[in-house]
Specification:
Elements: H1 5-16, E1 23-39, E2 42-60, E3 63-69, H2 74-90, H3 114-117, H4 121-137, E4 141-157, E5 162-177, E6 184-191, H5 199-212, E7 222-228, H6 230-242, H7 246-250, E8 276-278, E9 300-304, E10 307-308, H8 315-321, E11 331-334, H9 341-346, E12 350-364, E13 369-382, E14 385-389, E15 393-397, H10 399-404, E16 406-409, E17 413-415, E18 430-433, E19 436-446
Parallel strand pairs: 7-12, 11-18
Antiparallel strand pairs: 1-2, 1-4, 2-3, 4-5, 5-6, 7-19, 8-9, 8-11, 9-10, 12-13, 13-14, 13-15, 15-19, 16-19, 17-18
């Protein structure tokens, strides 16, 4: 049973009562989780854990210090608060330091579900057993991870703020390889509700990709029409959004900078089909109501019909620019269209079907140019049909270019990206996005990686 609001507040109040510094920010995170890991078609580890961490930040003027503890007796709390205050006194002044927040108003969210909190070891073991049976039946070798978690986050300040929220996560991923190591497939899902995890479908998808991608042949690098499955699209969405810092834009250091100064808010930067927003109350990917400072998380429109509507404002930069600060969002949602993946493929004369990306790195912040590899299922499309598997390739592309070249999209769905964003029992960014057909996507070289 995770800690209640009353338990969390009692501990935070005890810590705040020990304050000698000008200000204290106290946050409590933690909960309970259970997992099973498997590899080479055999369960390898299982475990369960429970615990909480208290983080204390003391402000002395414009100096601050932070400490953590997982021990909550009176002596431990005293030591932790005093250590944070001592670190603050010894630290250099931060000219951009911001005071702790006063009480805030938080909107309703629903990210906690009892079916996850009550998930049994037998349920997790059953998911793994089903995956192993399917793997052996299709003659592939599989590895994966199943986890369920119930967590809380709570925050309090010496100015009277207190916030508490609870959330759950059910995560399952599977990677399958053919015995000759030429074919590989992957699938993953993460939801707040256990009932939304279709473990059999996830296993079947990854295993089928592995079998179909066996014995790939190389194709020439170049510009291709691509059908990007949702996991691949998610990477592009997230990397673009992570580049949307208002300060970098205002200071002329990003794609979102305007010539002559300022930023490109209210400019059309993407295809008019593109709409991206965040909303902690979004049913498919609910989030918590506040960030780690206690700032309320609210619905924000980032891109509407291709027009940039907002950027991320830190509390310091928002104050300087007389804007509203932006809390760390709980999710990023890119709306889609009405097509199916089959329809996207049928509309492609010659192109590439991409399962996901891997090892993505930024090359140029001024254009958001990225580089990465394909992984776990890459297929050639010819005359509207998937004809054969192809070897993985390195790509260089900007989400800005890709999203301006979108032809059509499927409805959006909750996804885990190739870089792992969107999954995990801890509090992480949730991503909702479609599959899309994109013109002139740039592949730069072949790769022998599977």
């Amino acid at each position: 049973m995770i800690w209640s609001r009353e338990q969390a507040k009692a501990l935070i109040d005890r810590a705040l009562a020990l304050r000698k510094a000008d200000e204290l920010l106290v946050s409590l995170t933690g909960g309970e989780r259970g997992n099973v890991r498997f590899a080479r078609n055999t369960a390898t580890t299982s475990g369960a854990s429970a615990g909480y961490t208290l983080t204390i930040t003391a402000n002395v003027g414009k100096r601050s210090g932070t400490t953590t503890t997982s021990t909550f007796d009176d002596a431990a709390l005293e030591r932790t608060v005093r250590a944070a205050e001592e670190i603050a006194r010894l630290s250099p002044e931060n000219p951009e330091s911001m005071p702790v927040l006063e009480p805030q108003t938080y909107g309703p969210t629903r990210a906690f579900f009892q079916d996850v909190a009550g998930a049994s070891p037998e349920w997790r073991a059953g998911v793994v057993q089903s995956a192993l049976d399917l793997s052996k039946a299709r003659d592939v070798v599989s590895a994966g991870f199943v986890e369920t978690a119930a967590n809380i986050q709570a925050v309090g300040t010496s100015k009277g703020l207190f916030g508490y929220d609870a959330y759950t996560a059910a995560d399952y991923n599977l990677t399958a390889r053919t015995p000759d190591n030429t074919g590989s497939g992957w699938a993953s899902h993460s939801f707040n509700e256990l009932s939304k995890i279709d473990a059999k479908r996830i296993s079947e998808t990854a295993i089928d990709k592995a079998v179909r991608s066996k014995d790939p042949a190389a194709v020439e690098p170049g510009k291709y029409t691509v059908v990007l499955e949702p996991a691949a699209m998610a990477d592009l969405v997230v990397f673009m959004m992570f580049s949307g810092d208002a300060r970098q834009a205002d200071e002329g250091r990003s794609f979102f900078s305007k010539k002559g100064g300022g930023n490109r808010i209210d400019e059309a930067i993407l295809n008019e089909k593109v709409r991206i927003f965040s909303d902690p109350a979004y049913t498919a990917a609910p989030g918590t109501a506040f960030d780690n400072e206690g700032l309320p998380v609210t619905r924000i429109e980032w891109v509407d019909k291709g027009v940039l509507k907002n950027l991320f404002y830190s509390r310091f930069w928002a104050q300087k620019q007389q804007k509203t600060p932006t809390a760390q969002p709980a999710n990023i949602i890119m709306e889609g269209g009405t097509a199916t993946v089959d329809a996207l493929i049928k509309g492609t004369e010659r192109g590439i079907l991409v399962t996901r990306f891997w090892y993505i790195r930024p090359l140029d912040p001024q254009t958001i140019l990225l580089t990465g590899l394909t992984r776990d299922g890459l297929f050639l499309i010819e005359k509207g049909q998937v004809t054969r598997p192809v070897k993985n390739m390195r790509w260089n592309e900007s989400p800005i270019v890709a999203f301006n070249n979108i032809d059509d999209m499927t409805p959006a769905e909750r996804v885990v990206s190739g870089e792992g964003i969107g999954g995990g029992g801890g509090f992480q960014l949730s991503v909702v996005c479609p599959a899309a057909r994109v013109r002139e996507f740039t592949f730069t070289s072949a790769s022998d990686a599977v």
